[in-house]
Specification:
With 98 residues, this protein is of the alpha+beta class. It has one domain: Rossmann fold (3-Layer(aba) Sandwich). It has four helices and four strands; from the N terminus they run H-E-E-H-E-H-E-H. It has helices spanning 10-17, 36-51, 69-79, 92-97, and strands at residues 22-25, 32-34, 59-62, 83-86. It is flat and about 45 Å long.
Protein backbone atom coordinates (compact mmCIF):
# COMPACT_ATOMS: atom_id res chain seq x y z
CA UNK A 1 0.00 0.00 0.00
CA UNK A 2 1.39 3.42 -0.82
CA UNK A 3 2.24 5.11 2.42
CA UNK A 4 2.67 8.80 3.13
CA UNK A 5 5.39 8.03 5.65
CA UNK A 6 7.44 5.15 6.99
CA UNK A 7 5.04 4.38 9.84
CA UNK A 8 3.77 0.80 9.80
CA UNK A 9 0.56 0.19 11.67
CA UNK A 10 0.85 -2.67 14.21
CA UNK A 11 -1.74 -4.67 12.26
CA UNK A 12 0.32 -4.31 9.07
CA UNK A 13 3.34 -5.66 10.90
CA UNK A 14 1.28 -8.52 12.36
CA UNK A 15 -0.15 -9.34 8.91
CA UNK A 16 3.38 -9.53 7.51
CA UNK A 17 4.70 -11.74 10.30
CA UNK A 18 1.62 -13.82 11.23
CA UNK A 19 -1.08 -13.39 8.57
CA UNK A 20 -3.22 -16.22 9.96
CA UNK A 21 -3.23 -14.90 13.53
CA UNK A 22 -6.56 -13.69 14.87
CA UNK A 23 -6.82 -9.90 14.81
CA UNK A 24 -10.24 -9.83 16.44
CA UNK A 25 -13.26 -11.99 17.12
CA UNK A 26 -16.86 -10.89 16.74
CA UNK A 27 -18.47 -11.90 20.00
CA UNK A 28 -22.08 -12.35 18.91
CA UNK A 29 -21.39 -14.32 15.74
CA UNK A 30 -18.17 -15.98 16.86
CA UNK A 31 -16.55 -15.05 13.54
CA UNK A 32 -12.81 -14.54 13.68
CA UNK A 33 -10.88 -12.18 11.44
CA UNK A 34 -7.20 -12.80 10.74
CA UNK A 35 -4.55 -10.09 10.66
CA UNK A 36 -4.26 -10.46 6.89
CA UNK A 37 -7.95 -9.83 6.13
CA UNK A 38 -8.29 -6.15 7.14
CA UNK A 39 -4.80 -5.48 5.77
CA UNK A 40 -5.82 -6.80 2.33
CA UNK A 41 -9.17 -4.99 2.34
CA UNK A 42 -7.57 -1.69 3.35
CA UNK A 43 -5.01 -2.04 0.53
CA UNK A 44 -7.83 -2.49 -1.99
CA UNK A 45 -9.65 0.49 -0.50
CA UNK A 46 -6.49 2.64 -0.70
CA UNK A 47 -6.02 1.67 -4.34
CA UNK A 48 -9.63 2.65 -5.07
CA UNK A 49 -9.22 6.02 -3.34
CA UNK A 50 -6.12 6.69 -5.44
CA UNK A 51 -7.90 5.65 -8.66
CA UNK A 52 -10.68 8.09 -7.78
CA UNK A 53 -8.08 10.85 -7.88
CA UNK A 54 -7.49 11.46 -4.18
CA UNK A 55 -3.93 12.34 -3.23
CA UNK A 56 -1.87 12.98 -0.13
CA UNK A 57 -3.28 15.90 1.82
CA UNK A 58 -6.84 15.57 0.48
CA UNK A 59 -9.74 15.28 2.92
CA UNK A 60 -12.64 12.86 3.14
CA UNK A 61 -15.63 12.65 5.46
CA UNK A 62 -16.82 9.31 6.77
CA UNK A 63 -20.21 8.35 8.17
CA UNK A 64 -19.18 6.03 11.03
CA UNK A 65 -21.98 3.51 10.84
CA UNK A 66 -21.47 0.54 13.11
CA UNK A 67 -19.52 -1.48 10.56
CA UNK A 68 -16.04 -2.99 10.63
CA UNK A 69 -15.34 -1.54 7.18
CA UNK A 70 -14.99 1.90 8.77
CA UNK A 71 -11.72 0.82 10.36
CA UNK A 72 -10.39 -0.39 7.02
CA UNK A 73 -11.44 2.80 5.21
CA UNK A 74 -9.84 5.03 7.83
CA UNK A 75 -6.68 2.91 7.85
CA UNK A 76 -6.50 3.12 4.04
CA UNK A 77 -6.96 6.89 4.17
CA UNK A 78 -4.24 7.22 6.79
CA UNK A 79 -1.80 5.07 4.85
CA UNK A 80 -2.07 7.17 1.68
CA UNK A 81 -1.88 10.44 3.60
CA UNK A 82 -5.49 11.58 3.51
CA UNK A 83 -7.12 13.57 6.25
CA UNK A 84 -10.44 12.18 7.37
CA UNK A 85 -13.18 13.23 9.71
CA UNK A 86 -16.25 11.41 10.89
CA UNK A 87 -19.74 12.84 10.65
CA UNK A 88 -22.42 11.48 12.96
CA UNK A 89 -25.53 10.61 10.91
CA UNK A 90 -27.95 12.05 13.51
CA UNK A 91 -26.06 15.35 13.44
CA UNK A 92 -25.25 15.43 9.71
CA UNK A 93 -27.20 18.58 8.79
CA UNK A 94 -25.71 20.61 11.64
CA UNK A 95 -22.13 19.35 11.19
CA UNK A 96 -22.12 19.57 7.40
CA UNK A 97 -23.29 23.17 7.53
CA UNK A 98 -20.32 24.30 9.63
Amino acid sequence: MPEANNYRHPLARAAAVRPGAIAYRLVLSGRTVTCAEPEQRSRRCAALLLRLGLKTGDCIAVFPYNHLGNFELQWAAHCIGLYYTTISPPHFALEAAT
